[in-house]
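Tokens for chain A. Residues wanted.
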């Protein structure tokens, strides 16, 4: 993940896992930033990213969107965005709950307990191969920083 290694993170947390199974969920609870990138990475045993969930706040000219992707064979694949932006508006400081649940053929992504979208497994990157869950924040120019409250795995 060359791009990740070169990025300037101001926060980075991770938890080790020994693969994920159908029905398991990862929950991230945090205070939202006023700008920048908050991201969750599901990193496999080969260093690939089977899921990259990335709510982008005030990104590229006041645009908010949820960006989803996979990092495979040394490069990012075709990205997907979810309809709408189910996260707090800029300038509103609140707690965000992001839950990602493993389903039969996809990840179900929920924001504040609202189902947002599904992201199909790609390139044979099985949830069983996931070895760590990372939560990162980019953009140390944000005037209100993101604050991690919980990063947990639920069975």
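Reply:
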């Amino acid at each position: 993940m060359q791009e990740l290694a070169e990025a300037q993170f101001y926060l980075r947390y991770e938890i080790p896992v020994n693969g994920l199974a159908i029905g398991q969920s990862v929950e991230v609870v945090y205070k939202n930033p006023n700008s920048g990138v908050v991201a969750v990475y599901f990193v496999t045993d080969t260093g690939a990213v089977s899921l990259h969930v990335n709510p982008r706040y005030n990104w590229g000219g006041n645009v908010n969107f949820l960006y989803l992707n996979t990092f495979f064979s040394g490069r990012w694949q075709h990205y997907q965005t979810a309809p709408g932006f189910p996260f707090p508006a800029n300038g509103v400081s609140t707690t965000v709950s992001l839950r990602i649940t493993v389903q039969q053929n996809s990840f179900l992504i929920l924001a504040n307990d609202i189902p947002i979208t599904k992201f199909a497994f790609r390139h044979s990157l099985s949830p069983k191969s996931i070895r760590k869950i990372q939560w990162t924040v980019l953009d140390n120019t944000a005037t209100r920083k993101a604050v991690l409250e919980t990063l947990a795995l639920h069975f």
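The mean pLDDT is 84. The two ends are 28 Å apart (CA to CA).
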